[in-house]
Design a protein that fits this description.
Strand order of the largest sheet: 1-2
Number of strands: 2
Keywords: Coiled coil
Order of helices and strands: HEE
């Protein structure tokens, strides 16, 4: 019975060590992403663009989605 408890404790310590390492790795990745998002620049044209390109077997590129946010319209003047 004592041997089984010792094995269980060793297994638990190993598992906890692996979990702590995994958590540290994930925290490092999150920190890097936060830095990258913080360094993003604003689009100077003030437009949003989203495109999806699909490459066919022939090697040709085919635009399958194109989304553009419209420019802000001018405010209407009151008469």
């Amino acid at each position: 019975m004592g041997d089984q408890m010792g094995e269980l404790q060793d297994m638990f310590k190993k598992f906890m060590g692996q979990q702590m390492q995994t958590n540290q790795n994930l925290q490092n990745v999150v920190n890097k992403l936060e830095v990258q998002v913080g360094q993003m620049e604003v689009n100077p044209r003030h437009q949003e663009h989203a495109k999806a390109v699909h490459i066919l077997r022939s090697g040709k590129k085919k635009l399958i989605i194109k989304l553009e946010m419209p420019m802000k319209s001018k405010k209407r003047e009151k008469t």
